[in-house]
Amino acid sequence: MGATLDNLRSVEAAIGTATREAGRSPASVSLIAVSKTAAADAIEPVLQAGHRLFGENYVQEAAGKWPELRSRHPGCELHLIGPLQTNKVREAVDLFDVIQSVDRARLAAALAREMDRSGRRPRLLCQINTGEEVQKGGVLPADADAFLRSCSREYGLAIAGLMCIPPADQPPSPHFALLRSIAERNGLAELSMGMSADYAAAIQLGATHVRVGTAIFGARPPMTRPETAGRTSR
Ligand SMILES: *Cc1c(COP(=O)(O)O)cnc(C)c1O
Question: Residue 86 in contact with residue 107, Cβ under 8 Å?
Answer without folding.
Answer: yes
